[in-house]
Specification:
The chain is built from 16 helices and nine strands. By secondary structure, it is α/β, with parallel strands linked by helices. It folds into two domains: 218 residues, Rossmann fold (3-Layer(aba) Sandwich), CATH 3.40.50; 117 residues, no CATH class. Strand 5, helix 5 and strand 6 form a beta-alpha-beta unit. Helix 2 runs antiparallel to helix 3, helix 3 packs across helix 11 and helix 4 crosses helix 5.
């Protein structure tokens, strides 16, 4: 069932007119049940993986927020003079506007009741921003591989790479491979790492179109929401405070695809919105982080660092890549998601038993000393 909810055109403009946001109810609504919010994110739609990670539940109301990305009024405003105003595009489509949309939707649907957040990859980053703004409105949160490039940058974790001289890959192919790959990037020796990555790449090229992400994707001129998201993620990677950037192929691609917005930013350096981790420190609700130990898109120890920010956190690292291809195909990830979204102890124990039996649980790093909280 689809609902249409009015939100301000601009949350920071007093007396702003309204626009309509589409919200889809994925199951029957019952007032006595808890409610979970998911959001559809432009970045993850490029990789056509998001639908595989949408939870189902008989004990929760599940709402899927489509957001402002396709709203015609916003597009017309950005393009009203025939030439896109990319500074305005950022102002209308950034994660702060989306987070405030979510809060309006929560009030409209739930009144004073708290919401359960569930997000994967780029959408998890936005929901974490919402959590930092409205911590008192969140019951608990489940985040899968959130794109926390700012943590990776600030802690100087190494960038992902594919050191295989036998293959000449474009930046689009490398980003696609990093998104979907799941080889053991924490192998003991460099030779073992190169052999495993080469084997994984051959499999990837054989069984999965390596151009399935950015490679066969064409950015539309009026896709301002995606341009803004690419800008936000590349900005989080950049060392813009000191006028430097890390030599990162993912950064290079995201910046190139959002270059018009980068040009606008370099001209005026308008205000940008990042996650306030100090606010996250105060959140007392449960936060479950499910990360991939072999994530090539973002260095996996970033998830350990993120877990430190939450007072009541659980971190599960799985032997998988950013797209969770192995755990999705085995059915394990679906069990985990449902167990933590519902906060059902029996389902958690069952899922934990299965991932242990199938040897999907990543337990120890070879080096370093990072806190990994207990599973429950």
């Amino acid at each position: 069932m689809s609902l249409e909810i009015a939100v301000p055109f601009d949350h920071h403009l007093k007396g702003s007119k309204s626009i309509i946001i589409e919200v889809e109810l994925l199951n029957g609504f019952r007032e006595e049940r808890q409610t979970s919010f998911l959001i559809e994110d432009s970045f993850d739609l490029i990789f056509e993986n998001e639908n595989q990670i949408i939870p189902s539940s008989e004990s929760m109301n599940i709402f899927f927020i489509k957001g402002r990305k396709e709203n015609d009024e916003l597009k017309k405003e950005v393009n009203q003079n025939g030439v896109p105003d990319f500074e305005l595009a950022y102002h209308l489509y950034n994660q702060d506007q989306i987070a405030r949309d979510i809060e309006i939707i929560r009030k409209e649907l739930l009144g004073e009741k708290k919401v359960v957040l569930f997000g994967y990859s780029s959408s998890a980053t936005i929901l974490q921003y919402y959590l930092s703004l409205f911590p008192d409105q969140v019951e608990r949160a489940i985040f899968l591989n959130p794109l926390i490039f700012d943590i990776q940058k600030n802690l100087s974790f190494p960038r992902s790479d594919v050191p295989i001289s036998d293959f000449k890959l474009s930046e689009e192919q490398i980003v696609g491979f990093n998104y979907f790959s799941n080889f053991k990037s924490l192998a003991i020796s460099k030779e073992q790492f190169e052999n495993e990555s080469k084997y994984s790449l051959i499999q990837f090229l054989t069984f999965k179109d390596c151009l399935g992400g950015f490679g066969n994707f064409s950015l539309k001129e009026d896709d301002f929401a995606l341009t803004v998201r690419l800008f936000e993620h590349s900005l989080a990677m950049s060392d813009f405070q000191f006028g430097r950037v890390n030599d990162n192929l993912t950064f290079n691609l995201l910046k190139e695809r959002s270059k018009q917005l980068w040009e606008a930013y370099s001209e005026s350096e308008f205000l940008v919105h990042g996650i306030n981790y100090d606010k996250i420190l105060d959140f007392q609700g449960k936060v479950t982080l499910i990360g991939s130990a072999y994530d090539q898109l973002i260095y996996p120890k970033s998830y350990d660092a993120l877990a430190e920010f939450y007072a009541n956190s659980t971190l599960l690292l799985l032997k998988d890549g950013h797209a969770f291809q192995k755990t999705i195909s085995s059915g394990v990830l679906k069990l985990l998601i449902e167990a933590f979204v519902e906060d059902d102890i029996k389902k958690k124990l069952n899922a934990y038993s299965i991932i242990t039996e199938k040897d999907f649980l990543f337990k120890n790093y070879k080096e370093g000393d990072f806190k990994i909280p207990p599973p429950f």
